[in-house]
């Protein structure tokens, strides 16, 4: 289950229990979710940048053996590939939350409930 689906289910459950206004609580929780995903994106980006810089400096300064150099490059490639895949999923959920916040700005409560229930079924 995606994190966005979990947030939306939490909003729907909380709204039914408290009887509060759904759109304001949804926007607040989506904004918190989006900020958390943005921080995760930045952390992954900085991690990739550090791996590339440290790997390049290690290869350029200290490694003279070709076989060991290829092992280091292969390890860097695998690490970077995994981090980029994680960045992609984080960016997808981040942009979905942003789009959902835009849709919910001018919607009334019935539209918000219908949209959230459809998204929960599809996610």
Count of discrete alpha- or pi-helical segments spanning 4 or more residues:
4
Task: Assign an overall shape.
Answer: rod-shaped
Tell me roughly what share of residues is in helical segments: over 70%
Biggest pleated-sheet summary: none
Gap between N and C termini, in Å?
A: 8 Å
Strand fraction: under 5%
Strands, total number: 0
Structural class: mainly alpha
| Rg over CA atoms | 21 Å
In round numbers, the mean pLDDT is: 85
Q: Give the low-confidence spans.
A: none
Helices and strands, in N-to-C order?
HHHH
Describe the model.
The protein is mostly helical and 123 residues long. It contains four helices and no strands. α1 (3-18) runs antiparallel to α2 and α1 (3-18) runs antiparallel to α4. The longest helix is centred in the middle third of the chain and has 40 residues, at 22-61. The radius of gyration is 21 Å and the shape is rod-shaped. The N and C termini lie close together (8 Å).
